[in-house]
Amino acid sequence: MAWVLQIVFIAASIAVYRLALVSLDLRALFKRPELRQQVGVCVLMLIFLWTLKTGIQPGLDVHFLGLTAVTLMLGWRLCIVVAPIALLSLTIFGVYPWHDFGVNLFLGMIVPICFTYMVFLLTYSYLSRHLFVYIFIAGFFNAALTIAAQMFSFSVYYKLVGAFPWHVVVNDYFAIVLLMLFPEGVLNGMCIAGLVMYKPTWVTTFLDRDYLHGK
Description:
Blueprint: H1 2-22, H2 26-29, H3 33-51, E1 54-57, E2 60-62, H4 67-74, H5 76-92, H6 101-126, H7 131-161, H8 166-173, H9 177-198, H10 208-211
Antiparallel strand pairs: 1-2
Helix pairs in contact: 1-5, 1-6, 3-5, 4-5, 4-6, 4-7, 4-9, 5-6, 6-7, 7-8, 7-9
């Protein structure tokens, strides 16, 4: 069952990856020195955050995501293309096992990126376009929801493959989500707040005409 799901996850990730590439001209994008610098910073930040994992039980690891900030910085398409570099690097160096690459790629990365961008689109469409809405809702609150969604999806995966008893998953893994919501929100919210103040050109989803003048 686990290997079947791994293959399904890898196939689904490739499909989303190809969808993201459809409207991206990577050669034109990476001719911009500032964007190359921005992508490098994002990859290094993700590697650092995902290295700082802690194990509740062997195989039940939690770590900060940071994907909300990276998605808001790069946009979902470029983030889908860039973020796997961090995961592949950590897998090559043995931080994460190869046999979990598919699930880590899809549930640990693709799902959170798409989820966080969906929340951003909802805030952009239905809430007042104000600086504080962007920072606290699209940044802070979005990040908290995203890590909750990611941990819930992993909980369902562990149940499906029978990796751990359900009561262990609920009591020792998913229950800790309450401890992760606030720090994940603060981490991403502060990152976005600092960027829109000092490096607004690094944040693809932030436009002065929208958020500094309101809807």
